[in-house]
Amino acid sequence: MSRRTSRTRRPATAAPQAPRITPTSPCPCGLPAAYGDCCGPLHSGMAAARSCEALMRSRYTAFVVQDAAYLLRSWHPDTRPPAVDFDPAMRWVRLEILDTTEGSAFHTTGTVTFRAHYTDDGRPDSLHEQSRFVRHQGAWVYAAAVFVD
What we know:
This protein is an alpha+beta fold. The protein is built from three helices and four strands, in the order αααββββ.
């Protein structure tokens, strides 16, 4: 998941407040598991994503909890930005996985097409994207994306 570059940049305000997610909270990625059993171990480095879909879900959750370090670690070094900028008016609310191609333990590349729903200053919107993932040094990493709409 990338950040739209066509959005108007807001002036800096108070630091963004990530939602309070605990290990027992439902995981924001949409799977029926607690954060501590789902995306939490990937964020902490205790586990690695087993598929590109798992990495996509964990990256979406990292946007929800504003875990910039994980986003940067899971980004391919050839396309990784120097930093991740979180918009304080944006709240990610739901992820829909629409399609996946390849991206399993038997592949070296894969794609995930998804729709990520959010609110921006309280107004609902969504991001429809096809993300491309590759294996880098044995681990799945986010490489690039194409906006579908």
